[in-house]
What does this fold into?
Amino acid sequence: MIDRDPTRRLKLPKFSYEKSTLVPFRDLMLFLEVAKSISARHWALTQLLSGMGLRISEAASLRIEDYQTVEQGQHMLRFTQKGGATAVVPVPLPVLHALDAARAGRTSGPLIATRAGGPLTRGGATGLVETVNRRAAAQGLKRHINPHLLRKSAVTEALEMGMSIRDAQTFARHADPRTTSKHYDLGRANHYRHPGHQIAARLAV
It folds into this structure.
């Protein structure tokens, strides 16, 4: 045992976290529209990532049986999330339409299957997103959108619509609200929402 901390004067290097920038709403909608036009698989995957904020590995591992339970009139999606815990969340109606299209009348098996009908891997799911990127770029999309950026955009949209950080944390399934605020709120650089506009308008003479 020692009587004083030998690191008390230690200076840690400064680290600046570069946050991703907000995806313009029009670009995000173009991306989703292109995904829907390609196939039901592309549509379902992008809806899970953007509409429900799932991680790419979570979406790829889903089975049809995972969303057949109904509670309070809502279809519930059950899946294993990061860390191994089981998450149970309601499926919004637009996402439900996409999932039903992807399963194409099947009652069991992978929700988003490969062309051969097998389970989708994380790499295969990422490949579907890349296909959407290429098609959308040909239609004017200037921003490359990766799977995690779709998840971040979903959380950002929750905050942009005025939801509390608590609700956004629940949506993102983060253990710590600081993770939601620091790493997933891409709207801080949205100049249209800067408080200065409202303050100046109120004090204008």
User: Anything to note?
Assistant: The first strand starts at residue 69 and ends at 71.
